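hiii so um. not sure if this is the right channel but i have a protein structure encoded as tokens and i wanna go backwards to a sequence. like what aa goes where. can anyone help
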């Protein structure tokens, strides 16, 4: 059965979610589905903006992003009604997703939890009962959903999948050349801990390890990172390339020896999967979600405790001194991504099966979207709830839900 799938993004950001949506949309279209991307905040200036490809249709929500939320939410609801029947995926569009509670049965909603971040758990806690299906991208996220009382029959764990080269990308391994590190993602501190990277380079330089770090991405912490690592930039050990379209990343992965990730938490990093698919050995933090599903330490990569700078330096130095081991891990990383659960074909197969299950439940009446509770606020922002309570106490109801 051919489906119409609407995947929402905000304005195009450096995010694994955006890359996932691009991969999913392109593959669904290759399989004959009418899949498209809808930008709900197009034109908004982002510190980590990313150009989106032209290989998939990208539409924009009609009102300017500066309009009031109620107008933009109403516009999204009207857009989906005009497209129905269809599959609606809000992703991380937390601002507009509350319309899930006001959609008819013909608009099937699939909510995806992309990260082990409290915002995503808050998302499913508030809106999950209005979604036909809840998808978790890692085992850890799925376990947390069970704790949040998401019914098992409506929860599915589908890890990300990425395209993989048909052959292992050969690379040079030499003790004489500097070891080449690669970081891909948002340049920010809270989640990604990017300020750990120059500290790791400090340790490697002190040990006499020649090293080069290429940073691809952008974000709010870029200026401060450049300030903290000025001595490495001046010495040519760090190169910050800014944002690069995803379809140009293959060459960058092939040029690097190791993929560096110092994050405090993740969901299932798409950049990690893409790096491994190109034989780039991951040296990443041991976070609770996603990473441990992919990496077996010492077999296809290395795991380091969050914030452990010395161990990061130890692992990188060891791989520099032993190029034969680096080659072995690179080939194992590539094999992990080829033909397995992290391939894009496997991922899209599971989503097609999910869509078919939704259709069967809808036609049989097994699933019916519940009505919001009387007086339930389907906006996420707490100020609307405060205003509603204020109106009850004073008799002056300042809260007005938008007209449909």
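sure thing!! here u go:
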């Amino acid at each position: 059965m051919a489906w119409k799938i609407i995947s929402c993004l905000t304005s195009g950001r450096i995010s694994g979610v955006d890359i996932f949506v691009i991969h999913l949309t392109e593959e669904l279209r290759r399989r004959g589905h009418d899949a498209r991307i809808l930008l709900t905040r197009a034109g908004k200036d982002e510190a980590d903006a990313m150009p989106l490809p032209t290989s998939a249709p990208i539409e924009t929500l009609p009102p300017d992003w500066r309009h009031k939320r109620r107008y933009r939410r109403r516009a999204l609801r009207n857009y989906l009604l005009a497209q129905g029947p269809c599959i609606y995926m809000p992703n991380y569009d937390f601002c507009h997703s509350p319309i899930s509670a006001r959609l008819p049965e013909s608009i099937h909603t699939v909510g995806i939890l992309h990260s082990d971040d409290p915002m995503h758990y808050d998302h499913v806690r508030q809106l999950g009962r209005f979604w036909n299906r809840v998808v978790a991208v890692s085992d850890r996220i799925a376990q947390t959903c069970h704790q949040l009382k998401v019914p098992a029959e409506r929860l599915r764990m589908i890890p990300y999948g990425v395209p993989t080269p048909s052959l292992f990308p050969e690379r040079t391994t030499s003790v004489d050349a500097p070891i080449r590190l690669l970081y891909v993602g948002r340049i920010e501190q809270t989640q990604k801990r990017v300020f750990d990277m120059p500290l790791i380079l400090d340790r490697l330089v002190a040990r006499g390890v020649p090293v080069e770090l290429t940073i691809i991405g952008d974000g709010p912490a870029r200026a401060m990172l450049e300030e903290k690592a000025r001595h490495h930039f001046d010495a040519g050990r760090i190169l910050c390339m800014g944002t690069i379209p995803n379809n140009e990343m293959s060459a960058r992965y092939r040029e690097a020896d190791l993929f560096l990730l110092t994050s405090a938490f993740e969901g299932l990093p798409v950049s990690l999967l893409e790096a491994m698919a190109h034989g780039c050995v991951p040296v990443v933090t041991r976070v609770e979600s996603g990473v441990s599903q992919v990496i077996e330490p010492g077999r296809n990569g290395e795991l380091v405790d969050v914030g452990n700078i010395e161990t990061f330096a130890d692992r990188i130095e060891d791989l520099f001194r032993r190029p034969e081991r680096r080659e072995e891990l690179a080939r194992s990383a590539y094999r992990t991504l080829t033909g397995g659960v992290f391939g894009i074909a496997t991922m899209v197969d599971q989503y097609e099966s999910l869509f078919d299950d939704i259709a069967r439940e809808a036609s049989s009446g097994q699933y019916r979207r519940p009505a919001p509770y009387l007086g339930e606020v389907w906006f996420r922002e707490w100020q609307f709830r405060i205003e509603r309570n204020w109106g009850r106490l004073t008799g002056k109801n300042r809260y007005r839900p938008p007209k449909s």
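oh and Residues 216 and 244 are 7 Å apart (CA to CA).
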